[in-house]
Amino acid sequence: MNRFAEVRTWPLLAFALLMGLQAIVLVACLGGHAAQGWLVWVGMASLALTVLLAVAMVSSLSRAQDKARLAQRTLEEAIDALPASVEIFDEQDRLIAFNRRLVEIYPHMLRHFQRKSTFEDLVRESLSRGGIPEARGREPEWMEERKQARGKQVSPLLQRVHDDMWLRIYESRTPSGGIVGVRMEVTDLIHEQQRLAASRAQLRATIESAANGILTLDSGGHVLEANPSCEQLFGFTASELQGVHIGMLLGAAMSGHGAAVAAAQMDPQSLLGQPRELTARHRSGEALHLQLAIAEVRTDTIHLYVCIVTDLTERKRQEERLKRANELLARQSTTDGLTGVGNRRLFDQLLQQEWQRAARSERPLALLMVDIDHFKQYNDCYGHVAGDDCLRRVATLLRSCVGRGGESVCRYGGEEFAVLLVDTDLAGAQVVAQRCLDSVRLAAIEHEGSPVRRSVSLSIGVAARVPLLGEASQELIQTADAALYQAKQAGRARLICQQSA
Ligand SMILES: Nc1nc2c(ncn2[C@@H]2O[C@H](COP(=O)(O)OP(=O)(O)OP(=O)(O)O)[C@@H](O)[C@H]2O)c(=O)[nH]1
């Protein structure tokens, strides 16, 4: 229904009736009934009514025209106010109407729009100006394709025009065979899409070439994507990894029930926060040491996790090797190379450390200064190589006598050993010293040149005390040394105990 130009039919019917009545009157008059006065009156009345009706119809027509003009102006203004361009072509594809936006999009084409040009003329003009970049170099073919598709497109056309402006073009055919076209400018949208595509490509390239493994997980912790580093790290292809739960991947260092429990407990949400170190297994079964950092990505429509996996396996191996080398170095730096017991440096450290500990705890600390008797004669008699061997044997015997792994036996210098006994008073130290004497005696290491007896013997000076805070540890050494001197003086192969002052 046309809301703007409503035409009423009853005035036309009334007009026709009145005209008929007048015709009847006219026929009656001409037929000799002129004398009939009432007939004249009827004729005049119907004439007057006809005139009134005609006047009413003319004014109604004029009002209808005003209404129609108003409606058309409203329509034109509304179409002009649209943010999209509107163009209407008749059935011969001639432009018959367009709005202001079309001129804004193609200001250089105004002259052609006003001339009621055909669509083909307009497109040719655009092509001649190079206004359609996608057609450059193949204008005739492009024109043909465009004509073929004209008004038949199922989805809108996306077209780049002058000044890198992008348009989305909707075309539809009207029932009378014309075409209505609507062009919406989508330059901002396309530029945004281009920027997005560029940054997506950049991100993809970064992920693909990253040295770290990168995994994306769904909200339940299942792998969505894995980069090549991840494939290399775990020995599985990206498609094999897809759908695998993160717990299965990282809890693989365990086996059996433990692994299943760990997998179930490994909720990505619980892994958020500081990067953490985890163990896993390569497809080959090789143990992996990994660092895992997880970030959450949550928008209105997306909820996923991005995991950065760093392979620490080689670094851990190197650290382990370095640790072992350092331990060896530390052991070597405190071990006597000949006998394998502690060296003088270790003895100094131990004495200092235990002296202070004993002072703090007010517990006694004992020291045995052990010297092989007439060792010069031993060397002279059996040679230095045998002398070295004798030193090794005595060191081993001493270690076996002190207990606690014998770690407190140190070579003090030459053929002299020092034995530090923690938490041991003079009586306890005496027992240990006697054990040492007996042990060497029982070993019966031949010593032809000894004036004491025909086997190796020891002289031991024993000292013990509860140290006072701030007191120097040298005091203990001096006392033990003095006791050793006394043992030598008294004929060797014996021990002398001396309570430290
Ligand atoms: N084979 C060997 N001999 C050593 C080593 N260190 C020191 N000596 C020897 O030990 C001997 C110590 O001799 P002295 O200090 O005279 O003492 P001693 O002969 O044992 O006499 P007393 O201690 O008085 O019983 C020296 O001949 C040193 O050369 C060593 O590492 N290997």
Largest sheet: 5 strands, antiparallel
Bound molecules: guanosine-5'-triphosphate
Q: What is the CA-atom radius of gyration, in angstroms?
A: 57 Å
- The CATH architecture name of the largest domain reads 2-Layer Sandwich
Helix count equals 17
CATH fold-level assignment of the largest domain: Alpha-Beta Plaits
Number of domains: 4
Helix content: 40-55%
* Rough outline: rod-shaped
The main sheet orders its strands as 2-1-5-4-3
Structural class determined from secondary elements: alpha+beta
Please identify which CATH superfamily of the largest domain we are dealing with: Reverse transcriptase/Diguanylate cyclase domain
Number of strands: 15
Residue ranges: pLDDT <50 for 5 or more in a row?
1-6, 253-257
Instruction: Tell me what portion of residues adopts beta-strand conformation.
Output: 15-25%
Kindly report how far apart the N and C termini lie.
128 Å
CATH class of the largest domain: Alpha Beta
Catalytic activity: 2 GTP = 3',3'-c-di-GMP + 2 diphosphate
GO molecular function, one term: diguanylate cyclase activity
Protein name: diguanylate cyclase
Enzyme class: transferase
Description:
Helices cover 50% and strands 20% of the residues. It has 501 residues and is of the alpha+beta class. It has 4 domains: 10-79; 85-190, Beta-Lactamase (2-Layer Sandwich); 212-316, PAS domain (Beta-Lactamase), CATH 3.30.450; 334-499, Reverse transcriptase/Diguanylate cyclase domain (Alpha-Beta Plaits, 2-Layer Sandwich), CATH 3.30.70. Mean pLDDT is 89; it is low at 1-6 and 253-257. The protein has helices at 10-33, 37-81, 100-105, 110-114, 119-128, 139-149, 187-209, 228-234, 238-241, 246-250, 256-265, 313-333, 344-361, 375-382, 384-402, 426-443, 474-489; strands at 85-89, 95-98, 157-160, 166-173, 179-185, 213-218, 223-226, 276-281, 287-298, 303-311, 365-372, 409-413, 416-422, 458-465, 494-499. It is rod-shaped. A 5-stranded antiparallel β-sheet has the order 2-1-5-4-3. It has a 5-stranded antiparallel β-sheet with strand order 7-6-10-9-8. It has a 5-stranded mixed β-sheet with strand order 12-13-11-14-15, sandwiched between helices. Bound molecules: guanosine-5'-triphosphate. Guanosine-5'-triphosphate is lined by residues 338, 371-376, 379, 384, 387-388, 391, 414-415, 488, 492. Residues 274-324 form the PAC domain. Residues 199-243 form the PAS domain.
